[in-house]
């Protein structure tokens, strides 16, 4: 399986969002869009109107990461707005399987995110209903935090279960992914990598993406 590289536009210049997304077109697989509501997390970022406008400005698939309360109410509109994948948080959702089904019916892939303080074991049974599972390698809420290698045990648990049950699921990591951390995440079994600061903080974002991809692919291939 080829790695997915998903730069987080949270680290980009919000006054030039369309150009910032266009700068990774062709090099990245997905654009990761962090939606924060100042409730589920303290930070406040962008929401549906921005995603709708941005959708018209680029062809790159959107990987929408909803760090919001009440995703049952708000998530389907992101699928309807043309998001490729919509990920909601386990901590905010009472019935993840029902929401995953709703999202798929609305035309997107369905993802479940597991925050730093949440164990993954109770959610392993849900993997057949999901297209992606996002393991936070920081506490959700802000970009630029330090990668937490101890979170990779969750990645290993998911990878093991996916292999045993022969599941087609993307295992995504988010938080502090950079050239010095992506290899260990790939070795643990991740195959989709969100990177904000490491891409948009680089002098050449496309080059940073190519470097991350090569590092991840080498470790995934060796697994
Ligand atoms: C934080 C967001 C991340 C963030 C990653 O809650 O979910 O996607 O943008 O930023 P870096 O790569 O800088 O840690
Ligand atoms: Zn994110």
TrEMBL record:
Active site residues per record: 34 (proton acceptor), 174 (proton donor)
Biological function: Catalyzes the reversible epimerization of D-ribulose 5-phosphate to D-xylulose 5-phosphate.
Enzyme class per UniProt: isomerase
Cofactor binding summary note: Binds 1 divalent metal cation per subunit.
Keyword Metal-binding applies: yes
Pfam families attached to this UniProt entry: Ribul_P_3_epim
InterPro entries cross-referenced by the UniProt entry: Aldolase_TIM, Ribul_P_3_epim, Ribul_P_3_epim-like, RibuloseP-bd_barrel
Family: Belongs to the ribulose-phosphate 3-epimerase family.
Name this protein carries in UniProt: Ribulose-phosphate 3-epimerase
Molecular-function GO terms, alphabetical: D-ribulose-phosphate 3-epimerase activity; metal ion binding
GO biological processes: pentose catabolic process; pentose-phosphate shunt
Keyword annotations: Carbohydrate metabolism, Cobalt, Isomerase, Manganese, Metal-binding, Zinc
Cofactor(s) needed: Zn(2+); Fe(2+); Mn(2+); Co(2+)
Source organism superkingdom: Bacteria
Catalytic activity field: D-ribulose 5-phosphate = D-xylulose 5-phosphate
EC number: 5.1.3.1
Residues reported in the UniProt entry to bind a divalent metal cation: 32, 34, 65, 174
Pathway noted in the entry: Carbohydrate degradation
Secretion signal, residue range per the UniProt entry: none
Gene Ontology cellular component list: cytoplasm
Gene: rpe
Provenance organism: Actinoplanes xinjiangensis
Lineage start: Bacteria, Bacillati, Actinomycetota, Actinomycetes, Micromonosporales
UniProt: substrate binding residues: 8, 65, 141-144, 174-176, 196-197
């Amino acid at each position: 399986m080829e790695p997915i590289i998903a730069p987080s536009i949270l680290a980009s210049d919000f006054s030039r969002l369309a150009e910032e997304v266009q700068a990774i077109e062709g090099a990245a697989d997905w654009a990761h869009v962090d939606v924060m509501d100042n409730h589920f997390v303290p930070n406040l970022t962008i929401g549906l109107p921005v995603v709708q406008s941005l959708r018209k400005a680029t062809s790159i698939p959107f990987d929408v990461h909803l760090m919001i309360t009440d995703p049952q109410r708000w998530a389907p509109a992101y699928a309807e707005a043309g998001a490729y994948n919509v990920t909601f948080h386990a901590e905010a959702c009472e019935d993840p399987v029902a929401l995953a089904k709703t999202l798929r019916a609305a035309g997107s892939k369905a993802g479940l995110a597991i925050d730093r303080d949440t164990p993954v074991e109770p959610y392993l049974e849900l993997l057949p209903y999901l297209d992606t599972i996002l393991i936070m390698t920081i506490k959700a809420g802000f970009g630029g935090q330090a990668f937490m290698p101890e979170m990779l045990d969750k990645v290993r648990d998911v990878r093991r279960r996916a292999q045993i049950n022969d599941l087609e699921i993307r295992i995504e990591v988010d938080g502090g992914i950079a050239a010095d951390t992506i290899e260990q995440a790939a070795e643990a079994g991740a195959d989709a990598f969100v990177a904000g600061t490491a891409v948009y903080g680089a002098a050449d974002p496309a080059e940073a993406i190519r470097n991350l991809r090569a590092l991840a692919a080498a470790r995934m291939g060796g697994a």
